[in-house]
Every structure is written in structure tokens, then in C-alpha cells.
Write a structure and sequence with these properties.
CATH architecture: 2-Layer Sandwich
CATH class: Alpha Beta
CATH topology: Alpha-Beta Plaits
Structural class: mainly beta
Largest sheet: 2 strands, antiparallel
Strand order of the largest sheet: 1-4
Mean pLDDT: 97
Radius of gyration: 10 Å
Distance between the termini: 6 Å
Bound molecules: iron/sulfur cluster
Low-confidence stretches: none
Order of helices and strands: EEEE
């Protein structure tokens, strides 16, 4: 299961550079994780200030 970003994302951008496989990108209203690219490392979840990232 890939990690997912919920609607508590405030688009701060902190998670994007943490991803080793560039699975995170900015969307229109929040950041998104490409499920097919995510390798479930969990690096992004630790830096999110709102706890928006969790294992899906
Ligand atoms: Fe990238 Fe790892 Fe987060 Fe998946 S869990 S989006 S691979 S940093
Ligand atoms: Fe959104 Fe959290 Fe990523 Fe910031 S770190 S862009 S709040 S998911």
C-alpha cells in the first residue's frame, strides 16, 4: 500500500524533497502521492506539520 495525503495538507511543500523516488507532486488544492511510484519508505510522513500523510 502506498502512502496517501489527506485533505489536511496545507501545501507547505516540506514532504516533496524527502521522497527518494519523486512520487510527491503539487496538485491544485493539495500535494499528492503517485501510488504507482511510492515505495512505502515513510520518509515523507515524518516531516508533515499537519499529519496529513499516512499509510493507505
Ligand atoms: Fe515517497 Fe517514501 Fe513518501 Fe512514498 S512513503 S511518497 S516513497 S517519501
Ligand atoms: Fe502537505 Fe504535509 Fe506535504 Fe506539507 S508536508 S505539502 S502539509 S502533505
Amino acid at each position: 500500500m502506498a502512502y496517501v495525503i489527506d485533505d489536511s495538507c496545507v501545501s507547505c511543500g516540506a514532504c516533496e524533497p524527502q521522497c527518494p523516488v519523486e512520487a510527491i507532486s503539487a496538485g491544485d488544492s493539495q500535494y499528492n502521492i503517485d501510488a504507482d511510484t511510492c515505495i512505502d519508505c515513510g520518509s515523507c510522513a515524518g516531516v508533515c506539520p499537519t499529519g496529513a500523510i499516512s499509510q493507505g
